[in-house]
Fold this protein.
Amino acid sequence: MKERIPTKKIYVGDVAVGGDAPISVQSMTYSDTHNVEATVEQINRLHFAGADMVRVAVPKMEDALALKAIKEQISLPLIADIHFNYKLALEASKWVDCIRINPGNIGEKSRVKDIVKACQERNLPIRIGVNAGSLEKEFDDKYGATAKGMVASAEYNIKFLEDLGFSDIKVSLKASDVERTVDAYRMLRPRNHYPFHLGVTEAGTIFHATVKSSIGLGALLLDGIGDTMRISITGELEEEIRVGKAILKDSGRVKEGLNIISCPTCGRIEADLVSAVAEVEKRTSHIKTPMDVSVMGCVVNAIGEAKHADVAIAFGKGSGLVMVKGDVVAKLPENQLVDRFVQEVEAFATKEA
Ligand code: SF4
C-alpha cells in the first residue's frame, strides 16, 4: 500500500487533522440546529457511535445563536456549516471549533475576508468546501461542473486565504459521482499540502452510498490521499460512522478489530453459517486488537484459511473445529462452536494487548 501523502497538521478543537494524525471520521446532524435538545441528542449519538467530530448546518441566525448552548453540552469538536450568509459565520465563529464555507455561494470576497479575520482571531481552521453543483460563476462558465472546475475554485480560494496570511485550511472537493470526486482530489493533491476532507456528496441510501463511498474514498485512501472523511448517507447517523470506519479499516489505513473472513456458502454447506457469522460479528464488535479470523462453512477451504487466521472455525455436519493459528484446539458440536470461538478470540486479544 502507498504511504500516506504528508499534509499540514491542523486542529479542529483537540482533534488533529493531517500530518501523522489518524484519519478522522465525521458526520453531520439533521435536526434544526436551533433545537438545542435535539441537536445535542444527535451529537451524543454520533459521539457514542465513534465520531471524531461533528458538523451542524447553520442556515439562520437563530441556529448560529444556539451554538453556544450546544457547545456547552457536548465534548466533540463542533464545525459550523455555512452557505450564503457570511454573518452566520461571524456569529458561529464565537462558539465552534471550525468553520466550513462553500466559497461558491458566500458572495463577495470582502465577506470571505471578514470570515477569515474572525477565524484568525480565534485560531479556528476553515474548510474550503467546494461542491461541483455550486461553483463560483467564473469557474462554472469556464470549466462547467467538472473536476477541473472544482480544482480551479479550490486553488483560487486557497490563494485568497493565503494572501490574507491564513493557512489553517482543509479542503474538500465533492461531487455526487465517484469519478469526478476522485479526479478532483487526485488533481489537487500534488499542488498543495493542506489536509483533505474526503467525501462523495449526496451519495444516496445506505446501499448506494456505501458502494460509492467505498469505491471513491477507497481509491483515494489507497493512493495515500485523505485526512478526514464523511460518508454521506440518506439514513441514520450511526451508519455514516460505521461505514466510514469500515472503509478505513478495509483500506488498511486503520488496524483495529477483527477482519472477518467468511465464505459466501454454497451447496456443500452443512450449517447455518449466516447466523453464525452475524453472531460472531456482534459478540466481537468490542474488540479493538487487530486480528484475522475466518468462519467457513465446510472443510473445503476452511483449513487453508485457518492457516492464515489467528482464530478460525470450520463447520461440518453437526460439528466443527475451532483453530488457533492453524492448530485445532477443539472439536465440538455445532451449537458450541461460536461460544468457544469467541472465548479464543478474547484470549488472543488479551495476549496481544
Ligand atoms: S467453504 Fe465450503 S461451504 Fe463455504 S463456499 Fe467454500 S465450499 Fe462452499
About this structure: Residues 258-352 form a domain with the Sulfite Reductase Hemoprotein; domain 1 fold (CATH 3.30.413.10).
